Amino acid sequence: MIDSAALLGELEWEGQTIDHPEAVERAYDADPQSFYYTTTYARPEFGNFKKYLGMELKLREPASVTKIELLTNTPGGKVQILRGGEGGEVVAEGAFANTTTFELTEPVVSDSFTIWITELPQVSDGFRLELNEVVLS
After folding, report:
1. Distance between CA atoms of residues 79 and 81, nearest Å
2. Residue 31, burial from CB neighbour count under 10 angstroms (0-12, 13-18, 19+)
3. pLDDT tens digits, one per residue of 85-126
């Protein structure tokens, strides 16, 4: 169902994008052992360097979605699911758990959905998200 993905709200530091765009496809590669990961920040709000990070998931074609599952190694933080890209309608929101399931009250039809992260989960050395898998159904 997911064809590609792109990060929104990337941060560049000394000429390099530090939120690992090279690892984005690990979030939907059907391998729960691999994962996309953000940079580790000193504070949950991206170290106060930016306000959000989004991952826009582009579908092969418009689809009707009733459930969104996020598998992570890092519970905590805050996430919203948007229909479309940046500025899209919020269709679900909550905190990350090892398995976060958003059951939508009505089917949502779109050709893209965005995982909109506003607060990162805490890890032993700071704040970072490790997103193992995104499943839309």
Report:
1. 7
2. exposed
3. 999 999 999 999 999 999 999 999 999 999 999 999 999 999
